[in-house]
Design goal:
single chain, about 350 residues, alpha/beta, Rossmann fold, two-stranded antiparallel ribbon, 14 helices, globular
Length: about 350
């Protein structure tokens, strides 16, 4: 099948080259919102985005997944959560986890949470506010980490975007890593989990996705906007990074296999991380057709926290479309900005 798809891509590329559209195959410029970059530990960075004038609103820290590059949140103009929030007048920051090297195999779950906490403290210090004044938005696994941080540190507001919380409702991914046939420790013992290893699991969720992409190429030849969106997303999707082995070991064992957040048994850095301790305003954003984080897996957060100010927004689409799709730009970005503006 891989050989067939590769041959098909070669034919489609040759057809586009012959039509004079070969130059359009290059991705458009990515991550274009102006920003400053502050170094953090271990190659991580804290990104501060800015618009025409400095924002006077309290800061919001975006936390992406550890296994994907941060710029899915600022993919391209018109398909950028960062751009939308900056234009709405928010003070937007983002944690870039960096690219783990072989020696980072011992960076564990607790260390990742300490890095997140340092990023939040740095935002507070740079803005001259308290840690309780910093709002948080976590995407995918970044949302899971953000929820644990929020349970221990009480942010101003909490937003999760396609972030699994109840892993017993995690769909096919939960089934794949069932303890009856999956040993995360054996994988972690070999070192950092390579992008190809993780992508194999996601490919298993949608085994015909590459074929569907291939079939869409002729239509892209006549639709410049669709072509730019396609190649921007493909550039990001192929720019994956390793998962530090020790963080992976605990993530699979304690989240997917142990479901510790819902069970109320999770501990991080020697402290309990109980969902019932979250009392800040909380918004859960789900994607209606998300195989990686099915809506029930994310919505469970609202059933277990002590907050009284809580809401849910659903976006039509899949796990990544919820962030960069056309429906996200038309519906999710404005809804998120409206919810944040009053909190």
């Amino acid at each position: 099948m891989d050989e067939l798809l590769a041959a098909g891509r070669d034919v489609a590329r040759a057809w586009l080259d012959a039509s004079g559209l070969g130059a359009a195959l290059a991705p458009p410029p990515l991550a274009q919102t102006p920003r400053d970059e502050l170094p953090l530990d271990g190659g991580a960075r804290l990104l501060h985005f800015h618009g025409a004038a400095p924002s006077q609103r309290p800061p919001i820290l975006l936390v992406p997944s550890m296994i994907n590059r941060w710029y899915v949140l600022d993919l391209r103009p018109g398909a950028s959560l960062v751009e939308a929030l900056v234009r709405a007048g928010f003070d937007v920051w983002c944690l870039d986890w960096g690219v783990p090297e072989a020696e980072d195999r011992y960076l564990d779950w607790d260390a990742a949470l300490r890095r997140l906490a340092r990023a939040a403290r740095r935002v507070a210090r740079e803005r001259g506010v308290t840690l309780a004044d910093v709002a948080l938005l976590g995407y995918c696994m970044g949302g899971t980490l953000t929820v644990i941080h929020a349970a221990q540190h009480a942010p101003r507001a909490l937003v999760t975007l396609a972030a699994p919380i109840d892993f017993s409702r995690g769909g096919a991914l939960s089934a794949m890593v069932d303890t009856r046939w999956f040993d995360a420790g054996a994988i972690a013992d070999a070192g950092n989990v390579a992008p190809a290893q993780m992508q194999a699991g996601f490919t298993a969720l949608r085994p015909t996705l590459d074929l569907a992409k291939l079939m869409s190429w002729p239509a892209l030849a006549t639709d410049g906007d669709a072509r730019a969106a396609f190649f921007a997303l493909e550039a990001w999707a192929s720019d994956n990074i390793p998962f530090p082995a020790e963080a992976y070991r605990r993530y699979i064992a304690e989240m997917y296999q142990g479901n510790q957040l819902v069970a109320g048994t999770h501990r991080a850095n020697g402290r309990a991380a109980r969902l019932a301790d979250i009392r800040c305003p909380t918004l859960v954003i789900t994607a209606s057709r998300d195989p990686i984080c099915p809506p029930p897996a994310a919505l469970a957060l609202l059933d277990h926290i002590a907050a009284t100010d809580k809401a849910h927004v659903e976006v039509a689409g899949g796990h990544v479309g919820a962030v960069v799709g056309s429906r996200a730009a038309r519906e999710m970005y404005p809804a998120l900005a409206s919810w944040l503006a009053t909190r």
